Amino acid sequence: MRYDGAVEVPEDFTGSGPYMTTVIPGGKYASGRFKGTGDQIGAAWESLLCDWLPDSGMQVDARPFFEYYPADAAYDPKTGAFECDICIPVVAL
User: Fold this and answer.
1) Which residues pair with 58 in a beta bridge?
2) Do residues 90 and 28 touch, judged by C-beta distance below 8 A?
3) Contact assessment for residue 90 and residue 55, using Cβ atoms and an 8 Å cutoff
4) DSSP type of residue 52
5) Residue among 32, 41, 45 at smallest CA distance from 81
């Protein structure tokens, strides 16, 4: 498994030290709001891919999957529960 952490930066961003910039390709993404803990997020990904996708008329394409954490997403430090959007790139069958 590979996991990249990222933040949005302006186009003219210049950092110090080792870093890499990339652009998430446009197009259609299926997304669902996740609310839970790190132990539960795998099941949410599985549900989107195994339960929703087969009957959606869509298929996964080669763009990257990602989790989007909006600035206003909830986080509870006591329970570890958080919110994010899980996003999979899709195209019509």
Assistant:
1) 92
2) yes
3) no
4) I
5) 41
Give, in order, the Cα–Cα distances in Å from 9 to each of 12, 14, 20: 8, 9, 11
Distances (CA, A) of 41 to 33, 85, 86: 11, 10, 9
pLDDT tens sequence across 30-59 = 999 999 999 999 999 999 999 999 999 999
| Token duo for residue 65 | 């999957």
Tokens of 54: 């087969």
DSSP for residue 13: -
Query: Cα separation of 32 and 37, whole Å?
Result: 15
> What pTM was estimated for this model as a whole?
0.86
Residue 40: CB atoms within 10 Å = 12
Q: What ranges do the domains of the chain cover?
A: 29-92
Identify the bridge partners of residue 88 per DSSP, sorted by sequence position: 30
